[in-house]
């Protein structure tokens, strides 16, 4: 398959490749570094690819986590690469946080 074949396929079937998981939307130019619950801030300049590709992404103001788009307040907390839901307790060196 080459780019011409893909273009012709998408031209003949405009809705092809535009079905997104629930909560996500299709965009002709998605970020290669989308905002996620674990990385909500934009990355430093030069850390993401510059080319523009179509795909699914979370709507503005939502963050990707485990395939779902969440509000920032609904994102889990992260500590030492583990995720914790609101209200979870962390025991560390005989202390509970």
TrEMBL record:
It comes from the Eukaryota. InterPro entries: Mucin_vWF_Thrombospondin_sf (IPR050780), Ser_inhib-like_sf (IPR036084), TIL_dom (IPR002919). The keyword ATP-binding does not apply. GO terms for cellular component: extracellular matrix; extracellular space. Residues 20-75 form the TIL domain. Gene3D superfamilies: Laminin. Keywords: Disulfide bond. This is TIL domain-containing protein. It comes from Sinocyclocheilus rhinocerous.
């Amino acid at each position: 398959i080459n780019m011409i074949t893909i273009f012709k396929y998408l031209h003949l079937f405009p809705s092809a490749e535009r079905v997104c998981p629930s909560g996500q939307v299709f965009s002709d130019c998605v970020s290669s570094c989308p905002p996620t619950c674990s990385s909500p801030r934009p990355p430093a300049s030069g850390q993401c690819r510059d080319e523009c590709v179509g795909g699914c992404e979370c709507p503005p103001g939502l963050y990707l986590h485990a395939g779902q788009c969440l509000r920032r307040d609904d994102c889990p907390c992260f500590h030492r690469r583990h995720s914790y839901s609101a209200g979870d307790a962390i025991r560390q060196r005989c202390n509970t946080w």
